[in-house]
Design a protein that fits this description.
Blueprint (H helix, E strand, L loop, with lengths): L1 E5 L2 H18 L4 E4 L3 H17 L7 E4 L1 E3 L10 H8 L11 E2 L8 H14 L5 E4 L21 E4 L2 H7 L12 E4 L2 H5 L3 E6 L5 H9 L17 E6 L9 H10 L10
Helix pairs in contact: 1-2
Amino acid sequence: MQVVILPTADLACELVATIMERQIRRHPDSVLGLATGRTMEMLYDKLVLKHIESGLDFSKIRTYNLDEYIGIPPEHQGSYRSYMNNHLFSKVNIDISNTHLPLGNAPDIKDECRMYEWNIKANGGIDLQILGIGKTGHIGFNEPLSALKSRTRDKALTPETIRQNQGLFDSPEDMPRRAVTMGLGTILEARQVVLLATGNSKAEILAKAVEGPITSMISATALQLHESCVIVADEEAASKLQCRDYYKWVFENEPDWQEFRIG
């Protein structure tokens, strides 16, 4: 695991966007794993800008999102399909048939989960997986006690997750209580993983995820097992990391990061 700390959320998002841009330019038919949430909105804005200003080409890109709410159709304004269409897919030249999210209103949810897993494997697996982190330490909707080898499945959401996300719905009671999510085992099979964390509210849980023991109570700790995982955080989110001076030194001095450094 590598940790990169940048002064602001804007710079953190710019770095992740640049990592994604490099992947797309080097491998135009890449399979990307995508996330949703407030942290990702700035990231997708930057990708759209790269498409408009420098011709970043999404025409052969394939995508798989981490999760989707159960019980609402894709066209529902609170669905993650709507989120992705609004924030990214409708603004770049991606083939919408190459964009994949679990179908939250599928007649057989467990069969939908099995097919989602099969589809990822049939497309060669995920080259670059983008993640955020929830306040309980979840990645995707892998809530506490998620098995470290779990696969795509239906999952009950915690009251904390429901409180965090219900503001995205017109009425709080409309917030679904369950979701389909990629499992931790699914996520860990991606060839490269990048987690983006910004803001003071993520500081305590990020420190536990990066520097604490691996535990099913904090699903993001499973990323410590991945051989190519990068954590990108702004100063606020990184404020409780014990080794932040070392992480900064590595970013400023290691050749692998030279093309990404500021100034």
